[in-house]
Amino acid sequence: MRSRLITLLVLLITVSLLANVEAAPLEGCGGGAYKLDNWTEGETERSMNWSEIKWFICPTSEVEKASAFIKAGDDIHTPNGCYGFEWDQSGFRVWEKGPTNPPCEDISYVIVMWECKCPATVCTETNAFIDHLTKVVTGNGSGQGDEWRVVKTSTNEVMDNGNGQTANYELVGDYDTEYQLQFKFFYSDWTTEGCKFSFNVIWLPIIKARVQTGLTP
Question: How far is CA 87 from CA 47, 114, 187, 214, in A?
Answer without folding.
Answer: 9, 10, 24, 97
